[in-house]
User: What shape does this take?
Amino acid sequence: MPERMPKELEPAGGNGLLHRRLFLKGGAAALGAGSLGLMTAAQAKERPPWMRAPGRALSGYGSRSPYEDHVQRRPLSAKGTDGAGGSWTPLEALEGMITPNPLHFERHHSGIPNIDPGRHRLLIHGLVKRDLFFDMDALSRYPMVSRTQFIECSGNSYLAGLPEQPVNATCGELHGLVACSEWTGVPLSILLDEAGVDPAAQWILAEGADAAAMSRSVPLAKAMDDALLAIYQNGERLRPDNGYPVRLFLPGYEGNMSVKWLRRIKVTAAPAMTRDETAKYSDLMPDGRTLLFTFPMDVKSVITSPAPGLELAGPGLYQISGMAWSGLGRIAKVEVSADRGATWAEAALSEPVLDKAVTRFRMAWRWNGSPSVIMSRAMDETGATQPTRDALIAAKGRKFAYHYNAIQAWGIDGAGHVANVYA
Ligand code: CO
Assistant: This one.
């Protein structure tokens, strides 16, 4: 007679997916119970070496455990340059919804400027009643707000699905140009109101103080809605690689528009058609035409554990954990499949589920040790759903490089090795 299964461990989908109630109100005890017998009473009484002498001294600025030093971004520079390129966040090594500042992805066009905040100035000019000029002291006196929201490079993930054959890389190397932080700063609308925007104005041009003078056109409506001049990230001043001392932050929009090291905002009647928005950040369609000004990042999710870069130790109960986000609003639902998309079950969403933030989802899975394909698909509050890879390529071809958001499949072989696969 089969053992009676606790309610928390009821199957919810094919190939061992368990009901998400395992992650709701106390059900999780069933998941962790297995490791309790590993330590004997004698072992518990023995004092480890670090209890036999005082530990290291206090310090002015914290550092992580040396045992975690292997958790690194993966920098990749454009040929012949040191500072143009990107570095990818190791998503498979992280948890929760917030990205640690030192592991936040990078995408720079001409290196990271070493800006003296005492000499940095921000100019607002163009179609305004009066030009405004701010130093950091003046800017910091305006009312600030804090928002926890994601930022994603528009080129994120294309390597995961557009090549003919699946690229063998870690989860972070395929999808790690996304991060989520608490951003604190001054709403741009306050400063634009003070400058007095001309009724003919429809756009702004935002320019950075890097050697590339990276610049993008932003619709005035977005600038007046929720654009932020961010000064703090996760409670501390921005890091140089995130735009110190001040960056533009445009919730939900492709990351390059959140111009770092912001030095100038020009209010204009029309988009400036800068080099950065014509040579790049436009999407080539199968008919040869190019989409310009594709701003919001679409709904996406990815399982970060198990994922390439991690291995499964053997058959048993596993926690599937992943990230979901949408530039259009809140995540409404994430579903997970463990049988290559034949059946799907709803994952548990970790609170808080915030507007345009990364949402962590979890699912319990009993892996029986046989080769399996796991996938996740997210839906946001507007009803937008992640497409399959086939559907996305049918609609957009494979010449585009931006806004790739198809469902990601991870293949797990009998030895527990995880790899990028096309399902
Ligand atoms: Co775009």
User: Anything to note?
Assistant: Residues 300-421 form a domain with the Immunoglobulin-like fold (CATH 2.60.40.650). Residues 155 and 402 are 4 Å apart (CA to CA).
